[in-house]
Design goal:
Largest sheet: 4 strands, mixed
Shape: globular
Distance between the termini: 11 Å
Number of domains: 1
Helix content: 40-55%
Radius of gyration: 14 Å
Structural class: alpha+beta
Number of helices: 7
Oligomer: single chain
């Protein structure tokens, strides 16, 4: 990422939107948490709700944060989605045309705690 502060960060979960998908994700977290496919979700959410520490961090963060599921991301940012499809990841956007991968899939996979994610986001 450049030294310039982005206009916003966009986080993309490795999950589809919708109630049915949410129920299936919850079941997966309960039955087999070690094989759950979305490290972003695993770091920021418990089985039933958003992690309170993350929520406090997120709501006080000085740059806007946007959180999207795969289908929502592909619809909202189709040109970027064509170049990024290894979920989850986070983008730093200066505009819809000027973006950088801020945290890629591999970096998410290496994270072992919420504190690592928050440290990575420290401006």
């Amino acid at each position: 990422m450049k030294n310039q502060q982005p206009d916003k960060f966009v986080f993309v979960y490795n999950a589809q939107s919708g109630r049915l998908h949410g129920l299936m994700d919850t079941a997966h977290k309960l039955l087999s948490p070690a094989t759950y496919a979305c490290k972003l979700c695993a770091l920021t959410y418990g089985v039933w709700s958003e992690n309170e520490k993350w929520k406090a961090f997120r709501t006080s963060f000085p740059v806007p944060l946007e959180f999207l599921h795969i289908d929502e991301f592909q619809k909202r940012y189709p040109e970027i989605a064509k170049k990024n499809n290894d979920y989850p990841f986070a983008l730093a956007l200066e505009s819809n045309e000027n973006w950088n991968v801020f945290i890629d899939h591999a970096a998410f996979e290496k994270m072992t705690s919420l504190d690592e994610l928050m440290a990575k986001m420290g401006l």
